[in-house]
Structures are given as C-alpha cells and as structure tokens.
Amino acid sequence: MAAPASADDAVTQRLVIENCALATVDAQDTEYPTGHVVVAGGIIESVGPGKAPEGLANVVRRVDGTGHLVTPGLVNTHHHFYQWITRGLATDHNLFNWLVALYPTWARIDAPMLAAATQGSLGMMVKGGVTTASDHHYVFPRGAGDLVGAELAAAAEIGARITLARGSMDRSVKDGGLPPDFAVETTEGALLATEEAIDKHHDASFGSMAHIAAAPCSPFSVSTELMRQGAELARRKGVRMHTHGSETVEEEKFCHELFGMGPTDYFESTGWLGDDVWMAHCVHMNDSDIAAFARTGTGVAHCPSSNARLAAGIARVPDMLAAGVPVGLGVDGTASNESGELHTELRNALLINRLGAHREAALNARKALRLGTYGGAQVLGRTAEIGSLEPGKLADLVLWKLDGLGHSSIADPVTALVFGPPAPVTLSLVGGRPVVEDNHLSNVDEDALARTARAEAQRLARIAAGD
C-alpha cells in the first residue's frame, strides 16, 4: 500500500510510525502484524509491512510502535455535547420520561455552558481515540448567545474534526410535543438560523475541520413543515441531514397516532430518506424499514450504550449491514451514556447485538472496528478523507497501547482492542497533528477543563432550580 511522495521532499515534514501492528480497515481489511505508516504534510503517504522506506527526507519524528496497534481514528456519528453538564440525572427513566425530566434544565443552557460541555464531551472522546465527531445540538434558548460559534470554537481548541448538526425544535408541549414552550424556536426562525450556520461555518473542502448539517430534532419535537423545509434547505445548500428515528416503541405509537404511519414512512413522506441522510438509533425497524434505508442509502448512527441505558431496545444492526445500510457508531448524549467514550461502543455494539436474534454470529471484532471507523466516515459522507489507513487519505489515526496488563494475554491485537478493557492511547493524530500524547490531551489543560465543566454544571443546576 505504498505510494510515491507527491509533495516536495525538500519542504514536506514527515512523521514515521514503525514496529506496530496495523489494521487498515480498507476494502480488503488489510492487516499487518508488524508494519509502518508514513505521514507527509498531514496526509498518509505510505502504509505497509515491515520498516518504512529508506531514505525518506525531512523526517521530523519517528515513533516506535512496539506493543501497539494502529487503526484509523474513530468516528462518532451521534452526540449531544451539551449534556456533559447534566450527567447522572434521571438514571432510571425511559426515553420519554427522561426527556420530560431534563428538558427544563437543558432549556437554560447558554454559550459558556455549551463551550465547557463541548470540551468535556469532545475531550473525553478524543482521549479514547475519536478524531472526528458529530454533535446534534438542538436546544437554542432565547438570549443564550451564539451557541453554534461557541461550540465550534471550543471544538477547535481540542483539535478534532466536527460535524455540527444544527438541530431545531418547533413543537412544544402546547402543540403536543415534549419540550417546554420556552425551549423551542419558531419554524421560520429555526430555518433561518440553520441557513445562517451553514453559510457562516460549513467548509466542504478536503480536510475540513467543520461541517454543518441540517438536523430537526425528532418527529415528536418538530413540525412536519420544519421537516419538509429543512430537507429542502439542506439539499439546496448541499449539506447532510440528521435526525432521531425509530428510537422507541413510544415514538412509533406517536407517529401512527399523529401522522397515520410509522416513522420510516413519515420520514420518506417529508423527504428524509436518502444517501445524504443519517438517523440516530433506528432501534425499532421492521424488514420494510430496513429495505427502505438500503434502497435510499440512508445511514444509521448505532448507539448501543444509550439504547441500553434508556431501555430503548436492541437495533437490528446485523440485518442492516446485510441489507447494505451504512452504519456507524455513536456515543449519544452523555446524560444517557455517562462514560462518553466511543471506544467502549466498539465492545458494547458487539456484546449487545449478540443478545439479539443472530446471537454469536451478530458481530465480530473486525466488524465492530469497521463500524467505529469506516462505517462512521460513510455515514458522515467523508470516506474519501477518513475511515481507513490508505495513501492519500488524511492522517487521522490512533496508536493504541496493547502491551500492558489489561491486554497482555490476548494475542490478536484487534480482538484485544475490541474485547479487552479500554486501551490507552499513546498517540492520536488529526491531519498529522497530535491531539493525544501518552493518554493526555495535547492542546488543552485537562484539569482546567474539568474545573470549568464542573462550575458550569453547578451554575446550570442553580439556574434551573430558580436560585
């Protein structure tokens, strides 16, 4: 998998990682028990067995990867960063009751709170191997400040790529929805603000650090008009579309009662199926629903830990994959997944899906790794840039330490990563730039981040309590 250098050798800085196991997650699932990666100018220049090529010019760093596995960076396809400051609440609720319990608190969030929550959420994921993350932010209280700008600035400090799915809600309690009346936007206001976010922040160039998606929240918090016009806006602007779908049996009942059809048929009627769309959860999908997603190329963000935490059920991931549905992994908001780490979702996706109809044949370690890397890139529309270790792709990769006690007796490195305990990250690169070194964030002070997040969580709790 070597490629000749395309940049000027005299000026291109190179980073070389050698003596490591490699799982490329390319189309052939190529793996090397001992191999190398050469990064040149933020791009993967070569990947292959054995030592790196001799005579490389301008090598500014060499990393001895002995005892490590290198994989593509993990890609998180669904999250709610703001929930970092409301963790540990409503821990014994199902989805609808959990939302009712927490919406009044979430509706008090402001820009400093969101900035702190973004760095807590994204920082935890990056420490666990995430290099690209999608955040679905849909709570925009009046007077809260520039929430989109605050989130993107906070994410830029961490150094990961982000797809910010600019969410919206216009169906409140008075309209038969779940959010309180003061927590929603008008239909027109939501559409205008989404278009403004796209125009101001979306960067479609190769290697972009920030994408914007149009993302009305869910069928039970969004009007049909906002769904339809949101789809039209996204396609006019050439951005992707994201929402929650088929998460619970209560949602399916809601759709039948309000729209006279199930969630998938409702989504199709409003323009919300297509290869530019991905849905979070998709737990309660019948054969017809899965076929519709496969036919249209609609993607799925599978969030196994959150689905278990909220007792939503087990998504039919093996059936989706067999049908050709693009599937990635998601942490979901940390108010329903308090650990907030995507690498634990590799293991939980495998284990929880084995509780379903396919049992031990549901997923294996390599399928789980593919969900968390290439599958995520596919769902976010970025397979030309990320998701596998191949020459010409962005140097978004992770060096996992597997020679410690926790993995010491597991011979196969991919099995060790997925089945074993969370592996420390020795080095994580985004476009060739370190974001994690020796299991610590490279660009921010973790202790200061923790203090700020704690203070903002306490301030939110006081405001929500009326103090």
Short summary of the structure?
This protein has 467 residues and is of the alpha/beta class. 35% of the residues lie in helices and 21% in strands.
Could you describe the largest sheet, including whether it forms a barrel?
Answer: 9 strands, mixed
Provide the low-confidence segments as ranges: 2-7
Category by helix and strand content:
alpha/beta
Distance between the termini: 61 Å
What percentage of the residues does DSSP assign to strands (E)?
15-25%
In total, the number of strands is: 17
Shape: globular
Radius of gyration from CA coordinates: 22 Å
Mean pLDDT: 95
Helix content: 25-40%
| Contiguous helical run count | 14
Keywords:
globular, 17 strands, alpha/beta, 21% strand, 4-stranded parallel sheet, 9-stranded mixed sheet, 467 residues
Describe the model.
- The protein is α/β, with parallel strands linked by helices and 467 residues long.
- 35% of the residues lie in helices and 21% in strands.
- A hairpin with a 2-residue loop joins strand 16 and strand 17.
- The radius of gyration is 22 Å and the shape is globular.
- The N and C termini lie far apart (61 Å).
- Residues 2-7 have low confidence and may be disordered.
Structural topology:
Layout: E1 14-23, E2 31-40, E3 43-49, E4 59-64, E5 68-72, E6 74-76, H1 95-106, H2 111-127, E7 130-137, H3 147-158, E8 161-168, H4 187-201, E9 210-216, H5 224-237, E10 241-245, H6 249-259, H7 263-269, E11 277-281, H8 287-296, E12 299-302, H9 304-309, H10 317-323, E13 327-329, H11 343-353, H12 365-379, E14 397-401, H13 413-419, E15 425-430, E16 433-437, E17 440-441, H14 446-464
Parallel strand pairs: 1-4, 1-5, 6-7, 7-8, 8-9, 10-11, 11-12, 12-13
Antiparallel strand pairs: 1-2, 2-3, 5-14, 14-15, 15-16, 16-17
